[in-house]
Amino acid sequence: MSKITIAIDGYSSTGKSTVARQLADWLEYVYVDSGAMYRAVTLFALRKGFISETQFDKQKLIDSLPEVTLEFRKNAEGKAEIFLKGENVEKQIRTMEVSEYVSPIATVSEVRRKLVEQQQRMGEGKGVVMDGRDIGTVVFPNAELKIFMNASAETRASRRFKELQDRGDKVTFNEVLENVKERDHIDSTRKDSPLRKAGDAIEVDNSEMNLEDQFHTILQLAKDRIAGRI
Ligand code: CDP
Ligand code: CDP
What we know:
ATP binds at residues 10-18. Belongs to the cytidylate kinase family. Type 1 subfamily. It comes from Ulvibacter antarcticus. It catalyses: CMP + ATP = CDP + ADP; dCMP + ATP = dCDP + ADP. The chain is an alpha/beta fold. It has a single domain, classed as P-loop containing nucleotide triphosphate hydrolases (Rossmann fold, 3-Layer(aba) Sandwich), CATH 3.40.50. It has helices at residues 16-27, 34-48, 58-64, 96-105, 109-122, 135-139, 153-166, 173-189, 211-226, and strands spanning 5-10, 30-33, 70-74, 80-84, 87-88, 128-132, 145-150, 202-205. The strands form 2 sheets. The protein has a 5-stranded parallel sheet. The longest helix has 17 residues, at 173-189. The chain is globular, with a radius of gyration of 17 Å. Bound molecules: cytidine-5'-diphosphate (CDP) (2 copies). Residues 12-18, 131, 159-160, 163, 206, 209-211, 214 line the site of one cytidine-5'-diphosphate.
């Protein structure tokens, strides 16, 4: 059966990466978490001191971009993890600190250009499921299946809050809710590749869906598209 490209975009914490990973496993496709790449660049900028609460030295970040090498490697369980300059940073990129700075970093066109090029190379052979904000609009405008995920901000924040609590991150629900809203705002209003639903994307609101419902809904869409039924 011929392989297709699947683009999953949407607001933060809608469940994109969970469903994209499940779909890729089921279809035996490659899964790419494009958000992890923006998070890894953010971790790099934080470590270098290019961004902090009081300043953002955009030019220094741009000048240092050639140094930033990113790759995904599978761990023992077969789950892809991100490596920044050869270091596994899968855990370090998921902190609240990185979440607070990632959207400003993702507004920088030079950062986007570099990451989009790498993402397009990873999808060259099709058989890829990629999630992010601009996958159906910019990275793979010709993707055969585009999904746009949505859920209420409160639902999304409570899911993310639970996840952070389970990991022992000391945050309040309000901090998570504010971060989710702030990122949605920056991501959808930035000049370069703003978050928006592609004209040919199928919208899935999963406010009332659990992980299983959401997986079956989207898997059905993928099967229908692969079989040419939709
Ligand atoms: O998982 P979560 O929804 O919290 O975010 P993510 O997918 O890890 O992405 C983190 C941030 O990276 C987003 O809020 C965007 O600012 C940026 N991003 C982007 O601009 N374009 C993408 N294709 C993916 C992520
Ligand atoms: O990638 P994105 O930020 O869109 O979301 P995610 O990391 O896949 O999901 C965020 C959290 O919400 C995870 O802990 C998921 O297990 C949870 N979730 C859920 O409980 N029910 C859903 N229908 C979707 C996500």
